[in-house]
Amino acid sequence: MSTEAIIMFLIGAVLLWGGLALSVVIYVRAARRDDGSATGG
Amino acid sequence: MSSSVNDEQTRDQWGTKLGFILAAMGSAIGLGNIWRYPYVVYENGGGAFLIPYFVALATAGLPILILEYSLGHRYRQGAPATFHFVSRRWEGLGWWMAGISFMIATYYVVILGWCLSFIWYSLGEQWGEDTGAFFIGEYLATSSGAAPEGFWELGGLQWKVLVPTLIAWAMVYFLLQRGVSKGIEMASRILMPALIVMLLVIVLRAVTLDGAANGLDVLFTPDFSALGDAAVWVAAYGQVFFSLSIAFSIMIAYSSYLPSRTDLSNSGLIVGLSNASFEFLAAIGVFAALGFLAGVSGVPVTEVVESGVVLAFVVFPQVISALPALNSVFGVLFFATLFFAGITSMVSILEAVIAAIREKFDLSRRAAVNWVCGMAGVISLLYVTEGGLFYLDTVDHFVNAYGLVVAGLAEVLLVAWIARTLNEQREHIDSMSYVKVGSWWTISLKFITPVLLGFMVVYGLWQEFAEPYEGYPGSGLVIIGAGSVLLTLLLAMALSLNSRAPHDDLVHAGKK
Questions:
Q1: What's the distance, Cα to Cα, between the start and end of chain A in Å?
Q2: What is the pLDDT confidence band of residue B375, given thresholds at 50, 70 and 90?
Q3: In this predicted structure, which of B80-84, B201-205, B303-307, B409-413 has the lowest mean pLDDT?
Q4: Where would you find the membrane-spanning parts of this chain (chain B) (predicted)?
Q5: A28–B contact, CB cutoff 8 A
Q6: Entry pTM
Q7: Cβ contact (<8 Å) for B269 and A23?
Q8: Distance from CA of B278 to the nearest CA of A (A)
Q9: Domains parsed from chain B with CATH numbers
């Protein structure tokens, strides 16, 4: 793979998967604060 | 409004918030993530496409998704009654969205049937050497070969397609009958993790094949000059719009089943980013596999790149046959991945219709599911005929390009400019959510999204008149394509004539 292709892949991966991971962390923390369970309805 | 359907005590609810997120992910992640997105990236600047894609996600995809969560959660209704509460005269918009979903469901299930067939055909690679001839000629038995000559040759029912379609219908019916929590949520809890694991296995196998790097190079090498092309930006907004299940009325129905205390904005972020992450991963797997196929065939990668039905049912069987080992296993895995992605979307598409029908006619779930599945099942027989592929392709094109986009545009215009309830929705979201949506959300929905969706409609129409879609005959495009959109519109008008939701109920409930 060319360097520019690798850079574009990394940008996409960091923004998408990083953003998703951050959202999940926020979700879990908020759920714990609410009722102590991430799946507690 | 039916008290039995909408009463807080009896209305269907998700068992858990996680169940809702998985079901919403299942709705958003569908066939298009696997067979459409990779080609759209390749066709529109490669790696450079990620820039308009992220802009579209931030300014249209996520804002509309969160808006629909807010609408459904606030009013606790399906789309027709929700829009009635937003503005009395706009119930028809909700019916139009439900009608579009119904129309899409009638052919989507047939594609699920194809996936089931190809899971079977994967065993021993029964498609043979010429995968194109097998799929088009032998399996679909498409009439007279090419359109436009064969467009109107309906032909007989194709039993090879009918049987798996009926099996797919049976599965969909079973899940819908069981209801929101025991049916859709339970299926999503099993199928979504399985889908992600299966895709990861496929991607890991694909990127370790010879020639995979060449495919990924073609996918990600950026052509920044493409960013100056308006068509690339339209493609980015189109991809985000079609991929997220927005304007289908699905997300309104799904969020109406949420408990009263739910983080709406973060749920939207998780679902939106999961969907985008999934299709990004799928693109890596698809292009790595195409790089391998190009190497085996001794041709450039650009010569094997395809999208849609041809990518899945013609090119991928070639890839599977060319694998060095475990061909049948990876064949089953690939088509099962497609099926899992498709059935969770299919169920959500019909649930949006069922929610609307139940509220309107005060029907039990069983009766509503029987009616909706029964009618959609009869119409789906059209796509099981020898001419079915042409009709499917035509209806899909028109319903998506004009039905969904115009409905989405009307939805945004209604909330932002006609009823002017955007600030109320924003207050509702922020009162529920850890992540506040902020002014970017309002600006996006008020200015950016309407302009871009409006441009998409005009651009699409301009292209339509410049060149008939796929070279199909004008009569076919008008009768089958434009006719299907018009039919949903007429049905929506008819159903909204007897507008019946007691508007004052919500005023008294403090929700208006």
A1: 46
A2: very high
A3: B303-307
A4: 20-38, 50-72, 93-121, 157-176, 188-207, 230-257, 269-294, 332-357, 369-392, 398-419, 440-462, 474-495
A5: no
A6: 0.91
A7: yes
A8: 9
A9: 17-498 (1.20.1740)
